Structure formats: C-alpha cells, structure tokens
UniProtKB/TrEMBL annotation:
The keyword Metal-binding does not apply. It holds the Pfam family DTW. One of its GO terms (biological process) is tRNA processing. This is tRNA-uridine aminocarboxypropyltransferase. Residues 154-387 form the DTW domain. Transmembrane segments: none annotated. Keywords: S-adenosyl-L-methionine, Transferase, tRNA processing. SMART domains: DTW (SM01144). It catalyses: a uridine in tRNA + S-adenosyl-L-methionine = a 3-[(3S)-3-amino-3-carboxypropyl]uridine in tRNA + S-methyl-5'-thioadenosine + H(+). Its EC number is 2.5.1.25.
Length: 399
C-alpha cells in the first residue's frame, strides 16, 4: 500500500470530530508520569488484586503536557510520540471536561472503567463508524488501543519490563550486544503493547532498542520508519520469521548461500556488507489470530513496494516449546513465543561455520535466560495472588 500522510484526527474531515480543549484539572485514576513525583492521591477503583497498591495521579501541569517524549520512549520505543496517539489523549482530556468525570482504568490491559468509559465508548464508536477509509479506521483503532494502555499503565507498570512495579524484574536481566550484522524488528499488535506476559519486549531489553526496534501495527510513524529502513537496505536484506506463509519458505541456513537472497555471491563480501547494512528480520508479535491480519498488511506493503508476490519467509527447523509454554500454551507445538523464535533463529544462524565467530549462540542464550527471568517473575506473581501457575493444554491438534 502506498505511504499515507501522517494521520491526525483533525485531518480526517469527520462529521463527529474529537474536540480538543485545554486539559482538565480532574485527575485520573492510576495515571501519573513515572518520572514525576505524585502530588495528590487518586481514587481506588480497582479489582481486588490491585486494590492494595497505592495509586496516585500527577499534577495538573503534567496532565496538560499529555505524553512526553521521555515517557513515550521509556516504554521501549525510539520514535517520536505518534501524532494520533497524542491527539486521542487530548481528546480524552477534553471529554473529561465535557462530562465532568475523570478517567479510571482497571483489568487486563488497563481498560477504561466507570462512567467515563460509557461516554467515551459512545463517542469513539461514532467516530470510528464515521470513517470511510479502512486505513484510517485501522490507524484510529491502533492509536486508541495504545493511548488507553499507556494511560492505564502509568504508575502501575514498570516502563522497562512492563510488569507491575512490585514485580519488576529489570535488575535480573543481563544486557547483551547483538552482532551488528543482524537487526530485529518487533512488529507488535496494539493489544500486545504493555502486555505483562509479552516476550517481544525481552529483545530490546536484552539487545537495546537500536538492535531490536519496536514497530506498532497500524501506527503510521512506526511503520514508515520500518519500511524506510527496508528501502534503504534493499529487499534482499529483509526476511520475515513467520511459518507456512510462503510458497517456498527458506531455512535460516539458506539465507547466505543463494545469490538472490542477498544479491551477493562472495561470502566475504556479504559479511563486510552486513557490518554496514545488516539483515533485517521481522518478528510478528501478536496472538496467532491477530498475526494473520498483520502478515497480510506486511504482504500488501511488500507487493506495493517491490511487486513481489510473497515476502521472503523463514521457517525454523530446530524450534521446540519455549519456557513460556508453562504459563501460556500455544495453539500447537510448532508455534512459540516471539522471544523463543528469535533465540531459535540466532541458534540456527550460529550453525553456519561462517557465522560461528560472531557469538550468536551466546546471544541466543541471553534471550533464553531473559525468558526464564520473565517466567519466574510471572510465576511468583501468580502464586502471591493465589492464582494457578498451570494453564489448560491446547495441543490436541498436533499429535
């Protein structure tokens, strides 16, 4: 699909626009900037599992600022604040003033609650239905999801590990440098953004946001950054780690052998080029039901850009069940979590003699260790809350 202009609600020409007014002075529940000291207590409107944690709101001055660049990038992205996300948050502030009610959040994913939710739901559904363009609908849906999750997680989740602050695991994670010939792109569904058991976040926690970059599905600025990087690298330097979606899937070991896969035949030249222009590996980070739509969007953009029928996909041959299967079973044993897939890719690439000197096995081990840390943190939290640490198996179709 061709690039679009940066989205903004004021440019959508809607019959029911979100009016932007000065920020309301009424504080919202469980919302404060992590970098700002709290100044007033917030109402506790939480489910029992969260009611024991004190929650406070930021000052009126901080509310007026919306989402700062520092806060936005603190959640794991290196981009600027998406325009539509910022405008939706300003719309929330305006609606607070219009309805004389404050935002409150609770439940999984930091969902809106209370009377404000009722009013906002009416308004956002009318706005969504007024959009005639499917692309604008997707961008609005994604931006609203991100805005709600961001506001609902302030002061509750650690910005680095996305776990409740009392369960923060950051001190247990060991950073590791990723070989400069590889760059990961985490193409994440908005419903996985700030999700506590999400594993894609472990890649930039381990390797840094420049080596493993977050790209949010449906967020214009993020997707343009990713595709601009692909244009610069060239289509032969981009691979999608997604099973059974190519007529002729490659293995990780095929990448460096066929001329068309890199556009170069001399291996020494290939590796010298990789140090300047790395291979881009796209990891689709979402539920298996959402990932199908995400792949279709990638495929449509790929065809529009390079007129190829299918993006080059990689299937891993040595992938087994990850540690996260204990808490979050996958639809079948050949489906695994995002971080485990990245570790599997690094391990398979390490099997190539030409790549064995780059320590990819150690980098894969660093990801696996991070998975163990996340599993331990989630298990500890479940036990403390009196919840089960086993999940119903879902592998009946893979015997």
């Amino acid at each position: 699909m061709p690039p679009t202009h940066p989205p903004s609600l004021q440019f959508l020409n809607l019959t029911m626009p979100i009016h932007v007014r000065p920020a309301c002075a009424v504080p919202a529940t469980r919302c404060f900037l992590a970098s700002s000291p709290p100044t007033m207590p917030a109402k506790k409107t939480w489910v029992a599992s969260r009611a024991s944690t004190a929650r406070e709101s930021s000052s009126v001055a901080e509310w007026a600022k919306g989402v700062s660049l520092e806060e936005w990038q603190g959640w794991g992205t290196s981009s600027s604040v998406p325009a539509m996300v910022a405008e939706i948050i300003r719309g929330f502030r305006a609606l607070e003033q219009e309805t004389n009610s404050s935002m409150s959040f609770g439940g999984l994913g930091g969902k809106l609650q209370g009377s404000f939710k009722v009013q906002e739901d009416i308004k956002h559904r009318a706005l969504y239905n007024s959009l005639r363009d499917s692309e604008k609908k997707l961008q609005f849906f994604s931006a609203r999801q991100i805005a709600c999750r961001l506001l609902g997680s302030r002061g509750y989740l650690c910005q680095k590990c996305w776990l409740p602050m009392e369960d923060c695991m950051c001190s247990k994670l060991v950073p590791c440098s990723l070989w400069c010939g590889i760059k990961f792109w985490l193409y994440m569904h908005p419903k996985d953004f700030l999700r506590q058991n999400n594993t894609g976040k472990l890649l930039w926690q381990t390797f840094g946001s420049q080596a493993a970059t977050l790209c949010l599905f449906g967020i214009h600025e993020h997707e343009e950054i990713m595709w601009d990087a692909f244009r610069h690298s060239g289509k032969n330097m981009v691979w999608f780690l997604y099973p059974n979606k190519s007529l002729s899937p490659k293995s990780a070991q095929d990448i460096f052998f066929e001329g068309p896969s890199t556009g170069l035949k001399d291996q020494k030249v290939v590796f010298s080029v990789l140090e300047e222009k790395p291979l881009n590996f796209v990891l689709i980070d979402g539920t298996w039901s959402n990932s199908a739509a995400m792949y279709r969007r990638l495929k449509d953009r790929w065809i529009s850009l390079w007129e190829d029928e299918d993006p080059p996909c990689i299937s891993l041959s040595t992938l087994g069940a990850s540690a996260m299967h204990k808490l979050r079973p996958q639809p079948s044993w050949d489906h695994t979590c995002t971080a485990a897939a990245a570790a599997g890719l690094l391990s398979e690439l390490h099997l190539r003699p030409e790549l064995s000197v780059y320590g990819l096995d150690k980098q894969a081990e660093a990801v696996e260790n991070a998975l163990d840390v996340l599993l331990d943190a989630l298990t500890t939290r479940r036990l403390r809350m009196g919840r089960s640490i086993t999940r119903k198996e879902r592998h009946n179709n893979c015997i």
